[in-house]
Design a protein that fits this description.
CATH superfamily of the largest domain: Aldehyde Dehydrogenase, Chain A, domain 1
Shape: globular
CATH architecture of the largest domain: 3-Layer(aba) Sandwich
Helix content: 25-40%
Structural class: alpha/beta
CATH topology of the largest domain: Aldehyde Dehydrogenase, Chain A, domain 1
Number of helices: 15
Strand content: 15-25%
Largest sheet: 7 strands, mixed
Strand order of the largest sheet: 14-15-16-13-12-18-19
Mean pLDDT: 96
Oligomer: single chain
Radius of gyration: 24 Å
Distance between the termini: 65 Å
Length: about 475
């Protein structure tokens, strides 16, 4: 398939067929507002219905595929991504503004995600259970097996347009489910390019549909009882509202956060500075586990902040297609204006900006704030921007309580060489993951990933996602008298 342009929009992928619609969707380039990245189509109501019917029919064939057949298809996608690595990375950068070095890393992660999916497809196991625990059950044994749950509805976000979608498609195919994916309207071209690889993987028609949708069709996807599971990654407000409308289907939500990182008195200072700069400002902070709240022990405060602020000031905004660029633009002007307003609000309430603080258009600089009131939006909301709120601490128990003083609980980072502090953080922090001697931004794709409180419901990561996409069934065998 040729690269999408305004004159030749990329067709959308409907149950194994490439189709167009009357509604052309123009995709902006955040780094070049006057030069669109390309175009595709928004699905019609009729095409949505065809996709659902295709998923229902496709599931009947998917659930009968052998482990080998599912694994082979996923390995094909893995290898196809590897062969088109640079091309797909450039699509990610052109439509999301993600620096090309980070886009290449995202493709590499997606390659691993599909590889892991292929491997997990071969080890979905059950167990035998002795049932002869009372006289009436003598001679009986149970055998369990996991069966695919049914058609899956999936909605993925703009910040990782490839790998977060892969975390829905790969486990669905590994489990034997069909899936209809709504990619983000801001950057749908990435997954439509991946659909070209999926189309060659030998899967049944209807196994996968990738359809950009307007809000009305997206709502229909959420509420449609013909899907057995809804998996959504995005903002908490949208996610919890979806759950309320999802009906009887199972729901998995991977939502946002305002992740905390603690630099303890025993931390390796150079390592902590290096990793916190990465964790705070990669992809302009548009990562749900970006370092947003930073707590530094008073004994290290001056030394740490001198280096951290100097590092933030060196992160000048550049062309995301340049391999040397570490900080690119925000995804759109609205996002940049929102965070600018939050910074202004905090400064008006007494905060100080040690770096950054105001942007120009979609270019928002790496920003470090101190003396921020705890009730400021930059503290209590998800910033999703290149901004860090830093504060010193002295008491370890008190700083754990500060990290927990949030409606979010996705991941937290702790830099320490005190084993007792590491164990205590694991026991006390109300989060889905505690990352010791690294930032909360760390994730590898086979680990269980998700949050508590407003940060979500359920876990992603191949093995754990497959558990949600399958149901346990037991076979009871009784010996005849």
């Amino acid at each position: 398939m040729a690269t999408a342009t305004l004159t030749t929009p990329h067709p959308i992928y409907l149950a194994g067929q490439w189709v167009t619609s009357p509604d052309v969707l123009v995709v902006d380039d955040p780094a070049r507002p006057d030069t669109p990245a390309g175009a595709t189509y928004t699905a019609t109501a009729e095409q949505y219905e065809q996709a659902v019917q295709g998923a229902i029919a496709g599931f009947e064939r998917m659930r009968r595929l052998s482990s080998m057949e599912r694994s082979r298809a996923l390995h094909h996608i893995e290898n196809g991504l590897r062969a088109r690595r640079e091309e797909i990375a450039r699509i990610i950068t052109s439509e999301s503004g993600k620096p090309i070095r980070d886009a290449l890393g995202e493709v590499d992660r997606a390659i691993l995600t599909f590889k892991l999916g292929a491997e997990e497809a071969e080890r979905i196991t059950g167990e035998t259970i002795p049932l002869d625990l009372n006289p009436a059950s003598k001679g009986r044994i149970g055998i369990t097996r996991r069966f695919p749950i049914g058609p899956v509805a999936a909605i993925s976000p703009f910040n990782f347009p490839l790998n977060l979608a892969a975390h829905k498609i790969a486990p669905a195919l590994a489990a034997g489910c069909s899936i209809v994916l709504k990619p983000p309207s801001r950057d749908p071209l990435t997954m439509l390019a991946v659909a070209e690889i999926i189309d060659e993987a030998g899967l049944p028609d209807g196994a996968v549909s990738i359809l950009p949708m307007d809000r009305e069709l997206g709502d229909r996807l959420v509420e449609d009882d013909r899907f057995r599971l809804l998996t959504f990654t995005g903002s908490p407000g949208v996610g919890w509202a979806m759950k309320a409308r999802a009906g009887r289907k199972k729901v998995v939500l991977e939502l946002g956060g305002n992740a905390g990182a603690i630099v303890d008195a025993s931390a390796d200072l150079d390592w902590a500075v290096q990793r916190c700069l990465m964790g705070a400002f990669s992809y302009a902070g548009q990562v749900c586990i970006s370092v947003q709240r930073l707590f530094v022990h008073a004994s290290l405060w001056d030394a740490f902040m001198d280096r951290f602020v100097a590092g933030a000031r060196e992160l000048t905004i550049g062309d995301p297609m340049d391999p040397e660029t570490k900080l690119g633009p925000m995804v759109d002007l609205e996002a940049a204006r929102r965070i600018g307003g939050w910074v202004d609000e905090a400064v008006a309430a007494g905060a100080r900006a040690l770096a950054g603080g105001s942007g120009d258009g979609q270019a928002f600089p790496a920003t470090v704030l101190v003396d921020v009131p705890r009730d400021a939006a930059v503290c209590v909301q998800e910033a999703f921007a290149p901004i860090v709120v830093a504060a010193p601490f002295e008491d370890f128990d008190a700083v754990l309580a500060e990290v927990n003083d949030s409606r979010f609980g996705l991941q937290a980072g702790l830099f320490t060489n005190d084993l007792a502090h590491a164990w205590k953080a694991f026991e006390e922090l109300q989060v889905g993951g505690v990352i010791v001697n690294d930032v909360p931004t760390y994730r590898i794709d086979h680990m269980p990933y998700g949050g508590v409180k407003d940060s979500g419901l359920g876990r992603e990561g191949l093995r754990w996602a497959i558990e949600d996409m399958t149901e346990v069934r037991i076979l009871v065998l009784a010996q005849s008298a």
